[in-house]
Sequence to fold (421 residues):
Amino acid sequence: MFALADLRKQAVSQRQCRARNMWSGFLFGVGFAAFFDEAVFHQLLHWHHFYDKSTTSAGLVSDGFFHAFSWFATVGGLFLFADLQRRNALWLKRWLGGTLLGIGVFQLYDGTVQHKVMQIHQIRYVENILVYDLIWNMSAVVLLLIGAIVLYRTGKEASYEQ
Amino acid sequence: MSSEHLHHSAGDTASFLLAALFCLALIFYIWASLYSSRFYKKWPVYRSVLWTGGIVCAIGAIAGPLAEKAHTHFTAHMAGHLLLGMLAPLLLVLSAPMTLLFRTLRTGSARLLVGILKSGPVRFIGDPATAAVFNIGGLWLLYTTGLYAAMHQNLFLYLLIHLHVFLAGCLFTASILYIDPVPHRRTFQYRAAVLVFALAGHGILSKYLYAHPPRHVSASQAETGSMLMYYGGDAIDLVLITIFCFQWYKAARPRSVPV
Fold:
């Protein structure tokens, strides 16, 4: 038998549901961006190097933590997605907004701090690296902004409904 | 020449001893599964398969052609370590050996074992953070000091380090994944945080080794070895993370309202 207090604790409020859709998407987005980066730029194109020896030790640590976190986030974000679905609480639009934000944030951090400040590796080992850096970071900002707008608007929609 | 040969045969004896221990563990597990099934529900076959797989991985790492090559070949050494320190522990932990042991022991001995498991020191070394330090910290010590080179000169060190890698791997895996009953449960959040730190420590060490090989290891060997450590570790960790998240997912299920 459940006490009423237990039931209250288990019920997910609308506010929690909004936050969970965003975070699930965000975590998956971060993980997806890292996975894409690894699969396409490291393994398929061989543009990124596993380690170029200009990396600072802070860069090595940052890269290690980002890699570990994103590896966990990919799986964790998908399990959160499954959790939302079994609670009938999935809000795909908001979830996708979170995903875009996650991809944008990861790519922008990777493109500015990790590639440029900490010199982990460059996007590609060519003369006109500036073009690559600009396209990389501008696309990151665009994805980030679209994600932020979708999240803002779905957040507003929810408060009208309440 | 003759002393080298002596060293070699002593090494063979040591590998043989370790392999024999693992074989005994396999025989005991299978016997316990059959014996305890007479009194309890039948012990699932898939658990025995997991245990056998884990033992095979561990033996493959310490005896046979891979272990032979690992003495001179850093990449082979790394493959052995992935088997001994990560894959074997994962398979062994998944086969729920403690549960089987409790089914097999008499009540008195089982109670004694519970007492030991609940004691302070066991609680301390079984904490995910301590286990991660034993596991990942041990690897840092091995590869960034002269220990790796010394290990190939000294039989006792060789045995000690391989046992440590194996046991620390088991301890860490068991502290993250609760397959057997655990007296001191830690929250999912805490275990997730420790897991991410441990993964990061492993990844950082792999990349560090790419540029800073241990003594007597050539640059090209270090490069392939460290990449194997990085990506092989990722692959096994993916299984670990998925099972961990699945356990979390099951524990967080919404309970239906009782009628």
Notes: Chain A has one domain: 35-161. Chain A touches chain B at residues 1-2, 7, 10, 12, 50-51, 53, 55, 60-61, 63-65, 67-69, 71-72, 75-76, 79, 82-83, 86-87 (CB under 8 Å). The helical segments of chain A are 4-10, 14-44, 57-86, 92-117, 129-161.
